[in-house]
Amino acid sequence: MTQKNQQQLGKTLWHIADQLRGAMNADDFRDYMLSFLFLRYLSFNYEESAKKELGSDYPKLQENDKRIPLSVWYAANKADVPDFEKQMRRKVHYVIKPQHLWSNIAEMARTHHNDLLITLEDGLRYIENDSFESTFQGLFSEINLNSEKLGRNYTERNAKLCTIIQKIAEGIAGFSTDIDVLGDAYEYLIGQFAAGSGKKAGE
Question: FRET partner for 37 with CA separation of 20 to 30 A, picked from 27, 48, 86, 103?
C-alpha cells in the first residue's frame, strides 16, 4: 500500500470520526474508534489464519451469502471446535468466536441489528478474558459501551454503535486489506486525535 493510499485511508477514517462524534470530545471518541479498528485487525488476522488451518474445509460461500464462513464451519463441525481453537491458540495465540469477528459485527451494524451492542460487549470481554491467558487483559478497558455519551438508553446506544461501525466498515472496504493497513490508519488517527484532544467536532 502506497504512502498516499495510507494517508487517504487515515483521512477517510478521520472524516468519519469527525462527522459521527457530535458533541463528544476527540479523546473520548478516540478510544471507541481505535478499539473497533483493532478488533478489525485482530479479526482479519484470525480469519486468514483460520483459512490456512482449515484448508479446503474452510467454507466457500456465494458472494450474496452474508453468513460468516467460520460460523458455518463451527455449526457443521461442533465436535472439532475445541481442537481447532486449541490449534489457533497455539499458532495465532488467541481465539475469536465467529459471532465476535469484525465481519459479523459489521454485518450486524449494516442491518442495525438490535443485539449488536450485546454481541460486541460479549466479544470484547471474551477477547480480554478468555481468548488466551492474559494476552489481551484490559485491552478494551478504555471504552464503555453503556456510556450515556453514546445514548440515553440501550436502543440509542445500539443505534449509535451501528452507525459508527457501519461507517468504519464502509470506509475500510474501499482500501486494500493488507495486514499493515489498519496499523497505518491507527498511527494516523493517533496523531489526529492528539491534535484534536478536548475539542468538539468541527472545532
Answer: 86
Q: What is the mean pLDDT of each run of 10 residues along the chain (203 residues)?
A: 66 77 72 84 91 96 92 97 95 94 96 97 90 73 87 93 90 67 70 63 44
**What is the rounded distance in angstroms from the CA atom of residue 201 to the CA atom of residue 180?**
28
Pick the CATH number of 3-195 from 1.20.1260.30, 3.40.50.620, 2.60.120.10, 3.40.50.150: 1.20.1260.30
Q: Which residue, 9, 2, 101, 1, is CA-closest to 49?
A: 101
3-state secondary structure of 82: helix
- CA–CA distance, 145 with 168 (Å, rounded to integer): 17
Domain locations in the chain?
A: 3-195
Q: Tell me how far apart the alpha carbons of residues 198 and 177 are, in angstroms, rounded to a whole number.
A: 32
Helix, strand, coil share of the chain (percent; to 5): 65, 0, 35
- The model carries a pTM of 0.85
